[in-house]
């Protein structure tokens, strides 16, 4: 396992485990670990600048994954910790290095690394994410930039924080989010939509300057988040994007997770699809000695899960992040209706399955357990 960061990354925001991915973590034997390390988030609440609630969506009963907050909510860093701890004895983890060259030969691949070492392997799995630089080894595809920027920050918890995901809308398609974690801090997100591209490629100081200017007139939680960033709070800045690679494998090199198919870099699907994809890839490789045949079948079996992911469109992002005060009022009124008894009943009949990745329609294949 090659990772260019110097060590396991503790930072990161909430990720969801939904639909068939819940069965994957159960079969992996890490379900209890993930539940024990959950963020404790009890639901999503739309709030006004004065902190009052406009609408609240409490997480459903076990097995109900349709709402914004999933049954299994865990920090990305905590999920990474669990997976590394469970695999450390049998896995060679190499941090602070990256691929510099790949050579395929008849029965495997040879990989050159930036630290001067090299590796020989049966196959190379590229799981670098949406903006994968190694994806070109398999296919050359365009990443669709949706123009919505995210500044993720870890800030000190204060007495006003609770176990709700608080979502504060502001005019000009801006928003401030506060989410609980299980580590004694609060996870904050500043989002905004812009026609300017490339802001995610700037340095941290330039990005904070942009955030300060963009959120200068926003009250509520915004000043607190900006102050924390100014004080050096950890931040990750990204832009929402999409990619659909028509080809997931070439020879003995294959793509996994967002590197293969990403409907958006948020929305509750990416982590779940990565877990499902890893399970199917491992199962197909275990089922046959023909690696290239297994890789071909991996895409065929996994494709329906990727296709069932929630569709995210730029227009939908703008509807969810209104530009005007009236737009925010309309959104809040609609959310309050949807959160009420009648709205929840209608959604349960007409909209079930929007976020649950086809959990009921797409059962996981069964594979024999190794060993």
Question: What is the terminal-to-terminal distance?
Answer: 21 Å
Look at the structure and name the CATH superfamily: FAD/NAD(P)-binding domain
Please trace the helix and strand order, writing H or E for each element: EEHHEEEHEEEEEEEEEHHEEEEHHHHH
Shape summary: globular
Low-pLDDT parts are: 61-65, 345-356
Q: What's the CATH architecture?
A: 3-Layer(bba) Sandwich
**Residues in helix, %:** 25-40%
Quantity of strands, as a count: 18
Rg from C-alpha positions? Answer: 21 Å
Structural class given helices, strands, pairing?
alpha+beta
Q: Could you tell me the CATH topology label.
A: FAD/NAD(P)-binding domain
Quickly name the level 1 CATH class: Alpha Beta
Report the average pLDDT across residues: 88
Helix and strand topology:
Layout: E1 2-3, E2 14-17, H1 20-28, H2 31-36, E3 43-47, E4 53-58, E5 72-75, H3 76-87, E6 94-95, E7 99-105, E8 108-113, E9 118-121, E10 124-126, E11 144-156, E12 164-170, E13 174-180, E14 185-193, H4 204-214, H5 222-230, E15 235-244, E16 249-250, E17 253-255, E18 261-262, H6 270-287, H7 291-307, H8 314-320, H9 325-339, H10 341-350
């Amino acid at each position: 396992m090659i990772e260019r960061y110097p060590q396991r990354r503790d930072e990161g925001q909430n990720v969801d485990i939904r639909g068939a991915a819940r069965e994957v973590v159960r079969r992996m034997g890490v379900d209890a670990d993930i539940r024990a390390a959950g963020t404790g988030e009890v639901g999503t609440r739309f709030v006004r600048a004065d902190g009052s609630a406009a609408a609240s969506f409490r997480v459903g009963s076990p097995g109900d994954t349709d709402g914004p907050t999933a049954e299994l909510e865990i920090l990305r860093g905590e999920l990474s910790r669990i997976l590394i701890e469970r695999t450390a004895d049998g896995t060679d983890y190499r941090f602070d290095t990256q691929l510099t060259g790949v050579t395929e030969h008849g029965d495997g691949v040879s990989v050159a690394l930036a630290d001067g070492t090299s590796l020989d392997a049966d196959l190379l799995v590229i799981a670098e994410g949406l903006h994968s630089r190694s994806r070109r080894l398999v296919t050359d595809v365009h990443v669709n930039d949706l123009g919505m920027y995210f500044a993720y920050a870890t800030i000190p918890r204060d007495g006003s924080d609770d176990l709700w995901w608080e979502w504060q809308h502001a005019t000009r398609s801006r928003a401030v989010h506060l989410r609980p974690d299980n580590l004694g801090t609060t996870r904050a997100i500043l989002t905004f939509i812009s026609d300017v591209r490339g802001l995610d490629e700037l340095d941290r100081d330039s990005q904070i300057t942009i955030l300060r200017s963009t959120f200068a007139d926003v009250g509520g939680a915004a000043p607190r988040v900006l102050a924390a960033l100014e004080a050096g709070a950890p931040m990750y800045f990204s832009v929402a994007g999409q990619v659909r690679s028509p080809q997931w494998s070439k020879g003995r090199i294959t793509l996994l997770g967002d590197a293969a198919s990403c409907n958006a870099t948020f929305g509750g699907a990416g982590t779940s699809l990565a877990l499902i994809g890893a399970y199917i890839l491992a199962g197909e490789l275990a089922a046959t000695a023909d690696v290239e045949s297994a890789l071909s079948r991996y895409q065929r079996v996994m494709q329906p899960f990727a296709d069932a992911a929630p569709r995210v469109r730029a227009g939908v992002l703008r509807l969810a992040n209104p530009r005007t005060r009236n737009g925010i009022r309309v959104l809040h009124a609609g959310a309050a209706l949807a959160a009420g008894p009648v709205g929840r009943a209608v959604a349960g009949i007409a909209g079930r399955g929007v976020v649950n990745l086809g959990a009921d329609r797409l059962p996981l294949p069964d594979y024999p357990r190794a060993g």
